[in-house]
Specification:
The protein is of the alpha/beta class. The protein is built from twelve helices and 21 strands. Strands 4, 6, 7, 8, 15, 16, 17, 18 and 19 form a nine-stranded mixed beta sheet that branches. The model has no long low-confidence stretch (mean pLDDT about 95).
């Protein structure tokens, strides 16, 4: 088939790779090939045990405190607050015990496949050595903080992701750079990290170009499915026809779904980070600071301090002082950290309110497949998403029930 993949982030490129492997003629359309794509600067973690939605009972009680804290994990631009309300209502509805159980099961079905799918991808692009499977440490400042998440850890274990609870002393023996502020830790052996997310994106692009996949730099503005083909209108005034279109445009995907007639609740959840080339400390694995909602990851370019969630829409200018705040926060928990010389960055996470990606056919339209909305799990779920997208054409989705990821869930 002649297939257009819209989006050249890690998810779009993983979809293109899987389709090429199945013998399809693929063309990739990307709005900013020469730009700093969202996948370039993510935290680099394969968060395979991260299965629950961000929403939880009582979470709303923390929001006022987070919003007024300059080092807090949440920011909402005043001009975007009203537009965010429909998304927020669905987000809060996803925090009931029944919904958390349903969503966790659906994410676990994807995440149990992560290594099976990403290892062949890394081998294709010559980056097998870039994957480290040293696990992650989730850190708590208080016993109360750990107890508040005990149920979440039990849920992960029930889905096949075991863990080990550690004392402060055991955690600091594993990571000597930690300050004494840590009261409790959990070692999660399932997590991995890659040396540099940017290398994977660039490696996939190079592999696809070597397979004669064409790349077209233009913004896809509308999709029109027809009886025998599908047309894609581009911002440069051209129109392209194909047998099938895969929408993997990240946070920009909702506009394209709307042009097809498929409603979806999708927000740009902006994430900020700073990458410090000479941090003066060494970490063996990714650290997750549970109460403060940020991570520290040792990558090839340096120590990446990332996190925060800002809701401001797609077009508002970046507030890179959020990255500076993360650097200041990290110094509280990492002894002797030198934050000088850091490179600040912002990316637009495509986030659904229920924490599940959108993967599947456009209902009733045909010729359009969606692959977006992975939130914090884009790198984690990219190769698996590519496998499933290709499988939708053959009927082989590796035993995964695709119902929970359908875009039709937003129509009700």
């Amino acid at each position: 088939m002649r297939i257009v993949v819209i989006g050249a982030g890690v998810v779009g490129l993983a979809c293109a790779r899987a389709l090429v492997h199945d013998g399809h003629a693929v063309r990739v359309v990307e709005r900013a090939l020469a730009g700093d794509r969202t996948s370039f600067g993510n935290a680099g973690g394969l968060a395979v045990s991260e299965i629950a939605p961000a929403s939880a009972p009582g979470l709303w009680k923390n929001v006022p405190r987070w919003l007024v804290d300059p080092l807090g994990p949440l920011s909402i631009r005043p001009g975007h607050a009203l537009r965010l309300l429909p998304w927020l209502r669905r987000f809060l509805a996803s925090g009931t015990p029944a919904e958390i159980a349903r969503i966790s099961a659906a994410n676990a079905a994807l995440n149990r496949r992560v290594y099976d799918d990403i290892l062949p991808l890394l081998a294709d692009v010559g980056l097998s050595g870039d994957l480290r499977r040293d696990g992650a440490l989730t850190l708590y400042e208080s016993e109360e903080g750990f107890e508040a998440e005990r149920t979440d850890w039990e849920r992960r274990a029930a889905h096949g992701f075991p863990h080990e609870v550690l004392s402060r002393e055991e955690a600091r023996a594993m990571e000597p750079a930690l300050s004494p502020r840590i009261a409790r830790a959990v070692f999660d052996p399932a997590w991995g990290i890659v040396a540099d997310p940017r290398r994977i994106v660039e490696g996939l692009e190079a592999w696809l170009r070597a397979k004669e996949v064409a790349f077209h730099e233009a913004e896809a503005v509308a999709i029109e499915p027809k009886l025998d083909r599908v047309s894609v209108a581009l911002g440069d005034g051209t129109t392209g026809d194909a047998d099938l279109v895969v929408v993997a445009a990240g946070a920009w995907s909702a506009r394209l779904a709307a042009s097809v007639g498929d409603p979806v609740l999708l927000e740009s959840e902006r994430g900020y980070n700073v990458t410090i080339p000479r941090p003066n400390i060494a970490l063996a694995r990714q650290l997750v600071f549970a109460e403060r909602k940020f991570v520290a990851t040792p990558l090839a370019p340096g120590l990446r301090i990332g996190g925060a969630a800002e809701f401001a829409g797609l077009d508002a200018p970046a507030r890179l002082d959020r990255a500076d705040a993360l650097a200041r926060l990290a110094r509280v928990y990492l002894r002797d950290l030198d934050t000088r010389g850091g490179t600040r960055w912002m990316g637009q996470r495509p986030s659904t309110p229920d924490g599940l990606p959108v993967i599947g056919w456009s209902p009733g339209k045909g010729r359009v497949i969606y692959a977006f909305g992975h939130g914090h799990l884009g790198l984690t779920q990219a190769a698996t998403t590519g496998r499933l997208v290709a499988g939708l054409l053959t009927g082989d989705t590796a035993g995964v029930d695709m119902t929970p990821y359908a875009i039709s869930r937003f129509a009700r």
